[in-house]
Design a protein that fits this description.
By secondary structure, the chain is mainly alpha-helical. The protein has 2 domains: 79 residues, no CATH class; 346 residues, no CATH class. The protein is built from 19 helices and no strands. Helix 7 runs antiparallel to helix 16. The longest helix has 32 residues. It is globular, with a radius of gyration of 22 Å.
Length: 429
């Protein structure tokens, strides 16, 4: 009787378009189970798994498997609050724990190539949209047509806002270019799916970055020195943590996150009411201030004895939280949505291809490491929620580089997206 009732409820949920599991406690358990499966199998000595993980990075699977579960209706980011919890609580805490032991002077010594690749990524988005419209218009002009609020070029400006800055910039472009609500919904799907497909490629590239660096003839000496310096420091202070150490780590991580939330709840509304024109810099966004405050305080703590918590595994806990965030991001990606309006996704894929090709050409010319290419791109396309993920895929100590570049993306996002929108308007006419 009970199993029949449960089965009926599950069938009703599927009919209504709901996922099989909507209880976040169940979904969280499932996501942690996925992470456990990936990490246990990645450490397996079985020949199949050793061969498998030679080609597939663990981080990519932590992202891709939840997306499959979402696509087949088992779980859904739409019906879950886990991404919000992970991005607002675990992400800043993760950034704090990954940053408190960082050597800021060594990051500065990484040089200007990181900035060059970041702005190359920005330019790639600005010119990629208009070029994608022009390419599509040659063989299927109806795809990039429309008039008034339903004009496709208007909708694409919101994608540009997201891919250069973030959600605040995306919303700003919707208002600036008067995008219709129905078109805006379709563009959000293009934004999320295409950006996450590109993120999957970057995660895969992070797993084979040494081969890519050899092809790029990149000078990775500064990155190697930073990683070696961090590993040496970690080895010097490494100790077996006890409960007191773990509580100290959690208190620093969540304590700084709490202070950052408190600060952002004061600063963002104040800026919004006293200087609303600063919205174009994302300075009215609470999430912006949350990330900035958490990272800034963590950088300050890196000059104190708090950085010795790394010896008890601070970055290990930070990485755990980051992996949970990765799983919740994957849960938001519906691979089957590509088939709803494939013509719009074609525009997005061509756009992202142009962005990628420009990054590859410039990286090859200046012999920049793949790390700078990947993080420079994701700081634009993904922002503060995912740039640290890409950076930490290379080494946990490099996560702050992703944060710093993502903050820069927030600053230039509205201007870059507006310029892209104007050029797209010309291209479409």
């Amino acid at each position: 009787m009970g199993s029949a009732c449960c089965s009926a409820i599950q069938k009703e949920s599927i009919i209504l378009g709901q996922p099989l599991f909507t209880n976040d406690a169940v979904v969280l358990g499932l996501l942690i189970g996925i992470l456990a499966f990936v990490f246990i199998s990645s450490k397996s000595e079985h020949p199949f798994w050793k061969k498998f993980y030679t080609f597939v990075p663990t981080l990519l699977l932590c992202y891709f498997i939840p997306s499959l579960f979402n696509s087949f209706g088992i779980i859904s980011g739409e019906y879950s609050n886990l991404y919000f919890v992970a991005s607002r609580y675990l992400l800043p805490t993760s950034l704090v724990l990954l940053t408190i032991s960082i050597d800021l002077s060594s990051i500065i010594k990484l040089g200007t190539k990181a900035l060059i690749m970041f702005f190359t990524g920005t330019v790639g988005i600005i010119i990629g949209g208009p070029l994608a419209i022009m390419i599509i218009s040659f063989f299927a002009p109806d795809i990039v047509g429309g008039v008034g609020p339903s004009a496709v070029w208007r909708g694409l400006t919101t994608v540009a806002g997201s891919w250069i800055g973030g959600g605040a910039n995306q919303a700003a472009m919707k208002e600036v270019f008067q995008v219709g609500d129905h078109l805006f919904s379709a563009m959000i799907a293009v934004d999320v799916i295409v950006a996450n497909i590109w993120m999957a490629f970057l995660l895969y590239g992070a797993g084979i970055h040494q081969r890519l660096d050899n092809w790029l003839q990149a000078d990775t000496s500064a990155l190697i020195r930073l990683k070696e310096k961090m590993e040496t420091y970690r080895a010097q202070i490494l100790r077996m943590p006890d409960l007191s150490d773990t509580i100290k780590i959690m208190s620093v991580g969540f304590g700084v996150t709490g202070i950052a939330h408190f600060g952002s709840d004061i600063i963002a509304p104040w800026v919004s009411s006293h200087a609303p024109e600063l919205e174009k810099f994302s300075l009215t966004s609470g999430f912006f201030w949350l990330i900035v405050l958490a990272t800034t305080m963590a950088l300050g703590l890196s000059f104190t004895k708090v950085r010795n918590l790394e010896g008890a595994g601070a970055s290990r806990y930070g990485s755990l939280f980051l992996y949970i965030l990765v799983a919740t991001i994957g849960m938001k990606m519906d691979l089957l949505a590509i088939f709803d309006q494939p013509e719009l996704f074609l525009v997005g894929l061509i756009w992202m291809t142009i962005h990628a090709l420009l990054l590859i050409v410039v990286a090859k010319l200046i012999k920049a490491p793949f790390f700078f290419m990947a993080v420079g791109s994701q700081a634009n396309v993904g922002g503060a929620a995912s740039a640290p993920i890409i950076a930490s895929a290379f080494h946990p100590s490099l996560a702050p580089v992703g944060v710093l570049l993502a903050v820069l993306g927030y600053a230039v996002g509205t201007y870059g997206a507006w310029l892209c929108g104007i050029i797209m308007q010309v291209s479409a006419n």
